[in-house]
Amino acid sequence: MSQATPPVIFVAGHRGMVGSAIVRQLQKQGGCTLLTRTHAELDLTRQAQVEDFFATHKVEQVYLAAARVGGIHANNTYPADFIYDNLMMQANVIAAAHQHGVRKLLFLGSSCIYPRMAQQPMAEDALLTGTLEPTNEPYAIAKIAGIKLCESYNRQHGTDYRSVMPTNLYGPGDNFHPENSHVIPALVRRFHEAVQRGDEEVVIWGSGTPMREFLHVDDMAAASVHVMNLPREIWQASTQPMLSHINVGTGVDCSIRELAETIARVTGFTGRLAWDTSKPDGTPRKLMDVNRLGSLGWRASIKLEAGLRDAYAWFLAHQEDYRA
């Protein structure tokens, strides 16, 4: 009796934090043939290149983790880049996947799709019920479009394209750029460099009062593979026709002040924390309702301080790259 051929899985964005974690998860799981391409090999914003790629390779599953991402500063500074690049990448990949018979696709969105003042914790049906956070609206609109693309292909063509909405992610492979990174890598680098210089004070943007939820990227990868592998009948039974996305998070949040104090402890900083209240806080609170994912058999397992220690260890091992 001949063995079944392992499925060919394309991970788009495999060099990013989430994509690389998904690759690690799939390699650990085994039983598949992984397909990856660098940006130099395949520019996902170029429709012809994406069409040629899918025409050449018999892809059966796609993890669409490729995206242009960044923190408040980057989103405010490059709004056109954020909306254009993300719209083009996801539209090209989703359309080409359908055209060339890809059975299953998982689109990775973001918790910023929900309204700025959404009821907390944010449930999936909060989508499109209010005004978005202005500082990352272009990025959020692109991600909402990706969800609706998946929904629309499912409705019109009977595809099995699913979307996962992660909360704030961190961990190995994160971007530790001093200006364009998210809050955890920015603070990890700032506290580390303060320790190296012997500083007595670290200045942090905002008031420290906003509440945020953080998920280790390895948990995100495990959740993504779990959702992708759910039998179609179980997935469809948990969704509504116009609600094909699912939240991924821990269901627990903390204040930015508490986060900063934890990162100070992890990095060994013992000085003062100062708050620059002239800088924006962003959304007051962002906590995901993860009950639906829990009902489908998955919950996060990595606690915040342990995850931060893992992220800091990765930063220390790669800090020469960032110094360059």
From TrEMBL:
Top class in the EC scheme: oxidoreductase
Residues making up the signal peptide according to the UniProt record: none
The EC number(s) this enzyme carries: 1.1.1.271
UniProt-recorded name of the protein: GDP-L-fucose synthase
Family: Belongs to the NAD(P)-dependent epimerase/dehydratase family. Fucose synthase subfamily.
Main function: Catalyzes the two-step NADP-dependent conversion of GDP-4-dehydro-6-deoxy-D-mannose to GDP-fucose, involving an epimerase and a reductase reaction.
SUPFAM superfamilies assigned to the protein according to its UniProt record, in alphabetical order: NAD(P)-binding Rossmann-fold domains
Binding-site positions, substrate: 190, 205, 212, 281
Catalytic-site annotation from UniProt: 139 (proton donor/acceptor)
PANTHER family named in the record: GDP-L-FUCOSE SYNTHASE
Protein's organism: Comamonas nitrativorans
Positions annotated to bind NADP(+): 13-19, 108-111, 143, 166-169, 182
Domain called NAD-dependent epimerase/dehydratase: residue spans: 9-236
Keyword NADP on entry: yes
Annotated keywords: Isomerase, Multifunctional enzyme, NADP, Oxidoreductase
Key word Cytoplasm present: no
Superkingdom per UniProt: Bacteria
Residues at the site labelled Important for catalytic activity: 110, 112
Pathway, per record: Nucleotide-sugar biosynthesis; GDP-L-fucose biosynthesis via de novo pathway; GDP-L-fucose from GDP-alpha-D-mannose: step 2/2
Annotated Gene3D superfamilies: NAD(P)-binding Rossmann-like Domain, UDP-galactose 4-epimerase, domain 1
InterPro entries: Epimerase_deHydtase (IPR001509), GDP_fucose/colitose_synth (IPR028614), NAD(P)-bd_dom_sf (IPR036291)
Catalyzed chemical reaction(s): GDP-beta-L-fucose + NADP(+) = GDP-4-dehydro-alpha-D-rhamnose + NADPH + H(+)
